[in-house]
Design a protein that fits this description.
The protein has 178 residues and is α/β, with parallel strands linked by helices. The radius of gyration is 16 Å and the shape is globular. Helix 3 links the parallel strand 5 and strand 6. The structure holds inosinic acid and magnesium ion.
Length: 178
């Protein structure tokens, strides 16, 4: 792996940290009122790790958390169309209410694959919470039940999202300008 770099690229703040927090509080309230029983939060690594931890803390319902690792991008900015499972769930989801927590829905290829895979395990329900949605880029139809922000077709980093593994720790969501 190359050395971490953050200094030379141009970053423009698209969604500042305070707006992210306010929106996640709203999503938490909405999710808490929509579900009556326990929720299994399934975070998609690695991009969702920060969103997942903030969202989990504003859901006022019994929750369990688990993670799946999915890789579709290599180090490029657009989908390779090829999805690979790099980590499976630790727990069974049979008969349970699953909320998949994803950083961003772009082409929809990743979530199409994942929802298909999880459906075969007979959960009671599956819904999707995505911090960001780029609807202009959709190649597969995906219904996002809880969306943080719809954004234009620009490559973004920060708040968990990376470019070639860099920038995940930025507090704001920023456009990476080339
Ligand atoms: P999809 O399969 O094309 O919907 O891609 C979804 C995945 O691609 C996300 O989970 C991200 O990991 C990655 N991705 C898509 N757009 C961006 C972006 O603008 N910045 C960083 N990662 C992105
Ligand atoms: Mg991802």
């Amino acid at each position: 792996m190359s050395e971490p770099t953050q200094s030379s690229a141009k970053l423009r703040v698209l969604v500042p940290a305070e707006r992210i927090k306010a929106r996640i509080d709203e999503l938490g309230r909405q999710i808490s009122s929509d579900y009556s029983g326990p929720i299994i939060l399934v975070g998609i690594l690695k991009g969702a790790f920060i969103f997942m931890s903030d969202l989990a803390r504003v859901i006022d319902r019994p929750t369990r958390v688990d993670f799946m690792g999915i890789s579709s991008y290599g180090n490029s900015k657009s989908t390779s169309g090829e999805v690979r499972l790099t980590k499976d769930l630790d727990m069974s989801i049979e008969g349970l209410d699953v909320l998949v927590v994803e950083d961003i829905v772009d082409s929809g290829v990743t979530l199409t694959y994942l929802i298909h895979l999880l459906s075969q395990r007979r959960p009671r329900s599956i819904r999707i919470a995505a911090l960001l949605d780029k609807p202009d880029r959709r190649m597969r139809p995906i219904k996002v039940n809880y969306c943080g922000f719809e954004i234009p077709d620009e490559f973004v980093v920060g708040y968990g999202l990376d470019y070639a593994e860099d920038y995940r720790n930025l507090k704001d969501i920023c456009v990476l300008e080339s």
